[in-house]
C-alpha cells in the first residue's frame, strides 16, 4: 500500500484529519418502499477537521475517548460502531484505543460523525493489517450511514441513490464561507416532515460538471437544497440567519439538513479582503438578529480526502 504517513502498530497515537463536507446541492427525487429517500447531491470536502488517533490493543477491546462529552452512548457512537463492525466483518481479534479531538459540531450538516466513522475504517484497516481495498470498505461504510461511503470514496463526488452511488468530480474552485449556529438539527426530523419535497426532477452529472467548469467569479450555486425549507420551518433561527445573510449580499445555502449555511467565493474574488471584512462586521450583529451564537469561518475546498492514498 503506497502513500500516506507512516502508520504501524508501534506508531502509537497519531492524529489523522477527518474532514467536514458540504452539499453543493441536495435534491430529494423520490422515496423507496423501505422509507429511504432517493437523493441527488454533490459532496465537497473542506479543510475543517476532527482529528482521530489510534493505538493497537491486543485484547480485542475497543475504547473510544472524545475530547468533548457528546452525551451519546458508546453503542451509538459512530467511531465505536465503525470499529466493532469492521472487527466483526473481518473476524479480527485485535482491538484499539481511539481518541477523537472533536471540532466539527454535531447536527450541523457537515458530516462530522460520518467522517469520523470513515477515518476509523481506513485507519483500522491499516492498523490491523487487513489489506482491504476501497471497494471492500465501501459496503461496510454504507451499513453505518448514507454519508459514510463518500469519505471512504475519498474525493468530491456526485451522488445518487441514498448517497452511495458515487461518481468522482473535480473540487469546487472556490473558498467556502461557513456559518454554523449553536443549533442541533435532527436529520430524521427533517426527512420525516410531511411537507418535504420528494419529487424534484433529476439532473445529470453532466449538468453539474458543466456548471463546475463554468464557475468563475460569480457567487452562485448549482441547484438547491430541498431540505432547506423544512429545516427553516422547524428552526426559525435558521431562517432568520439565512435572511440576514441574503440581505447583506451573502448568497448562502444550507448544507445537508443543517444547521450550517455556506456561501461560495471564487478564488480570484478572495484575493481581496472585502468578503471577510464584510462578514466580520456582520458577525457582531448576528447574535441580536438571529438569537443564538453563530460561528463563522473561511475554508478551502479539498481535492481529495487526506487519507485517500491509504486505499489507492
Helix fraction, binned, reads: 25-40%
**CATH hierarchy, class of the largest domain:** Alpha Beta
What is the number of E strands? Answer: 10
- Arithmetic mean of pLDDT: 89
Report the uncertain regions. Answer: 1-11
What's the Cα radius of gyration?
A: 19 Å
Q: What is the 3D shape?
A: globular
Strand content: 25-35%
Question: Which CATH architecture of the largest domain is right?
Answer: 2-Layer Sandwich
CATH fold descriptor of the largest domain: Ribosomal Protein S5, domain 2
Number of domains: 2
What are the secondary-structure elements, in order, as H or E? EEEHEHHHEEEHHHHEEHE
Q: Tell me about the biggest sheet? A: 6 strands, mixed
Number of helices: 9
Structural class, please? alpha+beta
Distance between the termini: 7 Å
Question: In a nutshell, what does this entry contain?
Answer:
The chain has 312 residues and is α+β, with helices and mostly antiparallel strands. Helices cover 31% and strands 26% of the residues. Helix 1 packs parallel to helix 2 (112-127), helix 7 (228-234) crosses helix 8 (236-247) and helix 8 packs antiparallel against helix 9 (274-290).
Can you tell me about this structure?
With 312 residues, this protein is α+β, with helices and mostly antiparallel strands. It folds into two domains: 16-168, Ribosomal Protein S5, domain 2, CATH 3.30.230; 174-300, GHMP kinase, C-terminal domain (Alpha-Beta Plaits, 2-Layer Sandwich). The chain has nine helices and ten strands. Strands 1, 2, 3, 4, 5 and 6 form a six-stranded mixed β-sheet that branches. Strands 8-9-7-10 form a four-stranded antiparallel β-sheet, with helices on one face. A hairpin with a 6-residue loop joins β8 (253-254) and β9. α7 (228-234) packs across α8 and α8 packs antiparallel against α9 (274-290).
Amino acid at each position: 500500500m503506497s502513500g500516506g504517513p507512516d502508520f504501524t502498530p508501534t506508531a502509537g497515537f497519531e492524529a489523522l484529519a477527518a474532514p467536514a463536507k458540504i452539499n453543493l446541492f441536495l435534491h430529494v427525487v423520490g422515496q423507496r418502499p423501505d422509507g429511504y429517500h432517493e437523493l441527488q447531491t454533490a459532496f465537497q470536502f473542506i479543510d475543517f477537521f476532527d482529528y482521530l488517533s489510534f493505538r493497537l490493543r491486543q485484547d480485542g477491546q475497543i475504547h473510544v475517548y472524545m475530547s468533548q462529552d457528546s452525551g451519546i452512548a458508546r453503542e451509538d457512537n459512530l467511531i465505536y460502531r465503525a470499529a466493532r463492525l469492521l472487527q466483526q466483518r473481518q473476524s479480527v481479534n485485535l482491538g484499539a484505543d481511539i481518541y477523537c479531538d472533536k471540532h466539527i459540531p454535531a447536527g450541523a450538516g457537515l458530516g462530522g460523525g460520518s467522517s469520523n466513522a470513515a477515518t476509523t475504517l481506513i485507519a483500522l484497516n491499516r492498523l490491523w493489517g487487513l489489506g482491504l481495498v476501497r471497494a471492500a470498505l465501501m459496503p461496510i461504510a454504507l451499513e453505518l450511514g448514507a454519508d459514510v461511503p463518500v469519505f471512504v470514496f475519498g474525493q468530491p463526488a456526485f451522488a445518487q441513490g441514498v448517497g452511495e452511488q458515487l461518481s468522482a468530480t473535480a473540487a469546487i474552485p472556490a473558498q467556502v464561507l461557513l456559518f454554523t449556529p449553536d443549533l442541533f438539527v435532527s436529520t430524521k426530523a427533517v426527512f420525516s416532515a410531511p411537507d418535504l419535497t420528494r419529487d424534484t426532477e433529476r439532473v445529470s452529472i453532466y449538468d453539474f460538471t458543466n456548471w463546475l467548469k463554468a464557475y468563475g467569479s460569480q457567487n452562485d450555486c448549482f441547484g438547491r437544497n430541498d431540505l432547506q425549507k423544512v429545516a427553516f420551518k422547524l428552526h426559525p433561527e435558521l431562517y432568520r440567519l439565512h435572511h440576514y445573510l441574503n440581505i447583506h449580499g451573502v448568497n448562502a445555502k444550507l448544507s445537508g439538513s443543517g444547521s450550517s449555511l455556506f456561501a461560495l467565493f471564487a478564488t480570484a474574488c478572495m484575493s481581496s479582503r472585502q468578503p471577510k471584512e464584510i462578514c466580520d462586521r456582520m458577525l457582531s450583529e448576528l447574535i441580536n438578529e438571529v438569537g443564538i451564537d453563530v460561528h463563522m469561518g473561511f475554508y478551502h475546498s479539498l481535492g481529495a480526502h487526506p487519507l485517500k492514498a491509504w486505499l489507492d
